[in-house]
Fold each of these.
Amino acid sequence: MQNDSRRKMVEMKGVVKFFGSLKALDNVSLNVYDGEKVVIIGPSGSGKSTLLRSVNRLEEINAGSIVVDGFEITDPKTNINKVREEVGMVFQQFNVFPHKTVLENLTLAQKVVRKRSKSDAEKIAKDLLAKVGILEKAREYPTRLSGGQQQRVAIARALAMQPKLMLFDEPTSALDPEMIGEVLDVMVKLAKEGMTMIVVTHEMGFAREVSDRVIFMDEGRILEEGTPEHFFKNPAHERARQFMRQIL
Amino acid sequence: MAALADEKKPQQEEARHVTIDVGDGAAIPSKRDAGLFTAWRVAFFGAIAIIVYLAVVRPDPYLDIIKFVPDGILVTFEVTVLSILLALVIGLFTGLGRIAKNPLINGIASLYVEVIRGIPLLVQLFYLYFALGRIVHMPPLLSAVLAMGICYGAYMGEIFRAGIQSIPKGQTEAARSLGMSNSQSMYHVILPQAFRTILPPVGNEFVALLKDSSLVSILAVADLLRRGREFAAESFTYFETYTIVALVYLIITLFLSKLISIMEERIGAE
């Protein structure tokens, strides 16, 4: 299934992360290849969000190594801001900037970080807003938008940086059920365009449709990995079987 | 630990508007507090009415006093505005210092806040003008503004710190994950949101500072109180002069409080 001649976008080796005395990540190793879509599942507190957040160093790990886009991000000499420019992140709580309009949400980092001109940044922003279906809200403040719309703004904001890798941390978990579809649609579209994605989610329908690999985590470890079909039909571990029964 | 908590969180972020209680300003009249609202009107218009009444019925000495003291109002405002500007600048850096991870910066900022808040403003004024004045001589107005700015900067620092910390952590994470540096995310994302939260308590400090500015009269700064003292000392009309001085302070303070409450409601309505 994996072809190791492909370029590794993320290479994690022996990653350990403690929160106090709690071992959130316990010797985790994981490679994600260019263009691959990896879905991470697992029960609450299994470390899947911590794993994702360590990829762009929102969590600093205690041991192991993480190479992202060729940069060892645990190396203090690595300019983490440069790495983050290439790694988009979407949060459960959207985290749109409430004091900026939708358009400004998309142009801020383009101007400040990418040093694009206002007109270039706005052109890219408008194209992306059209793509996620909320161009007509460009001048609104995000607090006037529904949760699903806010999350689509957040996705477009990350895409405006033209990242090589997108991280999604339970992007639909804070949404009302009727809004989940509109966000997943955007993510499916993005996956089909070839974006490299790591997605923490319980949406197995999404996993089945786009993911190359599903990773099951429990107690800070990767317990099992395989195709979405493998998890639907016959997970090897009892914990994984239990979990699949609960979410399906 | 929060990163591990995967349970569903409410759809909206935590409340945006955090009330920061600072108890040393004037009471801010608001429509929610009907009693205070009425009291504001009675006090404000009552004070004006009494001044007008006294000026008309007993122009000697009241009209003379009213003609003499207004020069001091300008000085009072001058001291207040300059001090508050200094306090804002000091407060911003102190607030940033208090949340800094660097132990040295954090330590200096915290020490400043602890020391300044532990010494009475009047003593600080004496210290700057009379004690340090023996080493570096400063004009009274400069000493006054420096002392008031440094003192209120410590309080302002705590307001800035609370305002910055009231912004959900997710905002910083979103900014940082877009590749912004720590200072870029502070400047573009956190501070603009924090300013809305801290505007009311800063207004409150402004009123408190205006009242405390009467202390500078001991440094021979010709503020409202000082002008009153000069007039009273010459004419021996202590009762009449200080009555007018007190009423003028009251009117100014109540007027500013009202402005702040209007501003606060505008922000709340947004």
Amino acid sequence: MNKQLFLGDEAIAQAAIDAGLSGVYSYPGTPSTEITEYIQNAVNTVETLRTASLHAVWCSNEKTALETALGMSYAGKRTLSCMKHVGLNVAADAFMNIAMTGINGGMIIVTADDPSMHSSQNEQDNRVYGNFAMIPVFEPSNQQEAYDMVYEGYDLSEKLGYPVLLRITTRMAHSRAGVVTRDRKPQNPVRVEKDAGLKYILLPANARNRFKILIEKQKEFLEASENSKYNRLYTPSIPPEGGVGIIACGLAFNYLQENFPNGFEHPVLKISQYPIPRKQLLQLVEACDEILVLEDGYPVVEEQLKGYLGIGLKVHGRLDGTLQRDGELTPDKVRKALGLEVVSPYNVPEIVAARPPALCAGCGHRDVYEALNEVIKEYENAKVFSDIGCYTLGALPPFRAIDSCIDMGASITMARGAADAGIFPSLAVIGDSTFTHSGMTGLLDCVNSNANVLIIISDNETTGMTGGQDSAATGRIHAICKGIGVHPDHLKEIVPLKKNFEEMKKLIREEIEYPGVSVIVPCRECIQTHARKARTKNKQK
Amino acid sequence: MKTDIILAGVGGQGILSIAAVIGEAALEDGLYMKQSEVHGMSQRGGDVQSHLRISDRPVASDLIPSGSADIIISLEPMEALRYLPYLKKDGWIVTNSKSFENIPNYPEKSKIMEEYDKLPNKIVLDVEQIAKDLGAPRSSNVVLLGAASPFTGIGFDKLENGIRSIFGKKGENVVEMNLKALRAGAGKR
């Protein structure tokens, strides 16, 4: 027995490797990043993996990643694609349609949701996407389950012929526990389906057929759920007459256990695989008068049980206020929902001040914002649309430099819309990785309409916020902008350093005054990746 | 045996290394553990925390319930206070005394110490000075772990092995430095 301490993310990564993975394709996003990083690291350090041509790569965005994974599955190999919850929005076109075609080689898609928004713009619950696409969803309650679900999930995916969505949350992704690993399986050979026919051609006539097949498959998916060892009905030794039955999904099961260290006093249905296991649910409902639903994220199960009108079955949870509607579940919240008292002998003293994250000392984004803020002062109506990355921290003091942060790439497109509406000057601040993820198409729109915008691509040559993963076009941002059609006279580069402060101000001012599309690329490597490279170099000496 | 530990500090101070050493020691001791940590946005100079739970029985929740932490180990004195609602009545705070002031409204030092005066069980140490005196300025977090070691429920020799295994990759010198730091924190030679 090989027991190791793994983060949830690492357990998933190791399980995929052990299940005979041939390729992981992802875009970094907290809290999913460590899965792909772990596999990359394994490929670099484990001889047998290095020689097995296991692909572990960062892609331009989640959509390109998921489609690449589909190509590998098409060829018969096992594949993984990992993203944060909002990343699945980007990949949604591919995701919804992979559910229509089905797969060949086993495919697991990991969505790492972020209830309580530890580092995200929203707390969407991607079990909804699983439901929407009508495919099986796994929701592990602990790291061992995460490992087992992935290890065995590939077999299930291949047996059913469909991808499986693995939904984790920040807490699962970034919590460590002992995990028992299993023997590594060999990779699948290349094995294209001889009888694929029209399977992967979603022309309307065939898509209608594929959808009928997907609908027909639901029975099998439900059966898999009802027979899943991850779904389990617990009945107390002395069954209560009527009373409250509890449904605990994923991590919520642990919080429930925490509050009943000596065993449950209620009938409990643990759900870690979807669709909701109907058979066990019926047994629970028959034994109880009321149901309490504990789930991390949206009231997905609760809404399905309650129905729109809420007539019939008495269901408690996030919708009736038994649990807070938003935010991550905690053992305390579950305790309160169970009607038990939460006792804290000590409170937080009033003097304790908030300590928000900040841009690192010496970061190039700082120099950009300092210069930008100086120039912006000269324009009463200036608006700065920004984006997703470390530079979003420019919203906080001392900078307070930006007016928006919506989704990957929205800085450029919003700046264009606002400029069309008459905002002047209308600026965008975006990072290099975010630009290649979803900013390039927006820039093309700007060029095509000759929008009066200044776009600052603050290039730190990495994907910084997630810890310094490869950026898709390091060293090529200028060439891309030129290729998209930005006029070379208004495509400027500068090194964001104190000594170039006046020069940077001058550039910004000039390009604001130019009535058309301007791009300034302040380029200096992230100080964190720079320091890390220096350390690695020293070690090698 | 069950020990619930809150680790606190400011992003970059090294609380995760402390967690890693305790985790390794717990695993060697055949104990169950869960350790929840913070990655991503909160790392950059913001407050960071980790919940570490060790037990001889399987651990259910990754998070520690309110009022049940046995120790708060903090690399920053104000940060320890942020997690007081987790501390049980007779729990201990083991903290670095030196503040990390990267915010404009950081409270006065005397106000922070007044709060510590109200608490029954605390160890407040200038671990950075101790580490410097040892010639191991980068091991102040391990000094702090040493100071907290009597409350972890893990044998000191197991913690020493944890240090060996976590820092082993960095060479014998780094291991020795950190063992020295651990012993100094624990008041051992």
